[in-house]
Amino acid sequence: MIKCHLSRMMGERRLKISDVARETGLNRGTLTRLYHETAERVELDVLDALCTYFHCQVSDIFEFNPNPVPKGENMAP
Amino acid sequence: MIKCHLSRMMGERRLKISDVARETGLNRGTLTRLYHETAERVELDVLDALCTYFHCQVSDIFEFNPNPVPKGENMAP
DNA sequence: CACTTTTTGACCTGCAGAAGATCATTATTT
DNA sequence: AAATAATGATCTTCTGCAGGTCAAAAAGTG
Predict the structure, then answer these.
(1) A24 falls in which pLDDT band (50, 70, 90)?
(2) Of A2, A56, A58, which has the smallest distance from its Cβ to B48's Cβ?
(3) pLDDT per residue over B5-45, tens digit each?
(4) Which residue of A17, A27, A72, B62 lies most exposed, with the fewest beta carbons within 10 A?
């Protein structure tokens, strides 16, 4: 599965969704979906804006995990 | 800008669009758009299927290029 | 070479999901 | 406590991929 690390990247920088939305101009709903990993698609413009904003690569935001965690494990609150 | 390396990855393996479409089950139109970099969004399912198929990471397929090539340059044939 | 098969690009319609806006609830500030 | 900000949820609109088809181009075959 594809894992989105936006929440981690924001956490490391102590950023709020509203901060990123304001400073990137991206839609807050879009960021919320990426943050909570409920997004099922990504606009390349959005990915571009995030990479620019975080000065990072695509791989810092999206990671392919060939070994998804089995259900019910690693679910610490 | 976000660069898609699908054409390079396919070229290295001498794969045709129809090969990848057949073997991944992905829509040919979708692959054509990624191949020619006319796609403006990516379904995460599609990205997952491509990473699985090529045994690669997201960064092998998508790259963020903070220094896009100026118009009219590097446009060999 | 001509003929067949495969691949490709282009186009169309339907539809899934992001964009954009709004509202109620919850945090945070003052 | 009151005011402000942030968030989650929900709704409508709109963009562009999925899926299909068609004609042209490429590759394969006798």
Answers:
(1) very high
(2) A2
(3) 999 999 999 999 999 999 999 999 999 999 999 999 999 99
(4) A72
CB-nearest partner of A44 from B42, B45, B57 = B42
**Distance from CA(A34) to C1'(D8), angstroms, rounded:** 14
Q: Look up residue A64 and give its two tokens.
A: 């392919």
Q: Which two tokens stand for residue B11?
A: 């070229």
User: Between A and B, how many residue pairs show a Cβ–Cβ distance under 8 A?
Assistant: 64
Tokens at A37, concatenated: 């990993």
DSSP string, chain B: -EEE-HHHHHHHTT--HHHHHHHH---HHHHHHHHTT---EEEHHHHHHHHHHHT--HHHHEEE-SSPPPTTSS---
* Residue A67, token pair as written in the block: 């070994």
The pTM (predicted TM-score) of the whole model is: 0.89
In what helix (H) or strand (E) does residue A43 lie, and over which residues does it extend? strand A41-43
The amino acid at residue A60 is D
A58, B59 Cβ separation under 8 angstroms = yes
* Residues A30-77 pLDDT 10s: 999 999 999 999 999 999 999 999 999 999 999 999 976 555 455 454
